[in-house]
């Protein structure tokens, strides 16, 4: 059986109403229009109908991969909402500060629908601390939540009003990319309660909170790759059976999503502890040695002023490939190379530092690594 697919503009009020109908089955499945990055390949035409189980289709531009359309069921979305509420101390009222064509923004609306609360919505566009603080003052429920990317959290913690607004929240979910340790420590010092989330559109958003799988989510590592299973998994990629079969593998009746991330899973008395170390495709071969760009980036981001620095690959006639740092804050290359070499070995030392006025970003708030990589060549 199928049902119609409705495309709506990325207007929160419109999306909220359409999403409510998509989740309860009274309306068509939903796809929210998203801006297409310059140079992105043209997507395939959309079907007029989708499998009955599909309630939401999320288009992902990605920071390193080709676009895909992730098909999510109502069951997966509501399972994600229930698991998040359980892990966060209960349902509550949400502030929407992220675009609604991304899964993190959509989840704010899904969780509001599940909790039967009215979300407070910020105006779309550039994140503004004053606007966020004003919006936060409108929250009147006992439990208050929001989802942010690290750059937004960092902006809040730089002003007194931003800190005061952040303290009003029962919990701030921070995801989309790794949250630098200095930023986490700063939040703790200021009394701001944050939870680091890990997940993707394919897992209906964050399904690992502070390293712990939530709800029925289970993790494993196969040949160095982190894989996830549970009720939050997507149905697959709309109109792309080959990619679906590659990324969603079934073993002994259980479907596992291959994340493409490297990491580890440790058994604890309470369950599992997941640590994500990087991307499989972030590993370069420099002078015959493997170098994880994520590891290099992690060391650099621990330095003062470098919490948003990005490390990308660049071709090199002598070494094959080398790490290159793209940052908005100048840093001495010689000192940086010495520090990286001491921690990760000389092959991981960056070849150069590119200083830019502003880091290239995707609309989701993640670094645009493809553009940064072009800057580094």
TrEMBL record:
Record-linked Pfam families: AMP-binding, AMP-binding_C
Recorded GO MF terms: acid-thiol ligase activity
Domain AMP-dependent synthetase/ligase residue range list: 42-211
Gene3D superfamilies: 3.30.300.30, N-terminal domain of ligase-like (3.40.50.12780)
Sequence ranges assigned to domain AMP-binding enzyme C-terminal in this UniProt record: 296-366
Alphabetical list of PANTHER family matching this protein: LONG-CHAIN-FATTY-ACID--COA LIGASE, NONRIBOSOMAL PEPTIDE SYNTHASE PES1 (EUROFUNG)-RELATED
Protein name: AMP-binding protein
Species the sequence originates in: Galbitalea soli
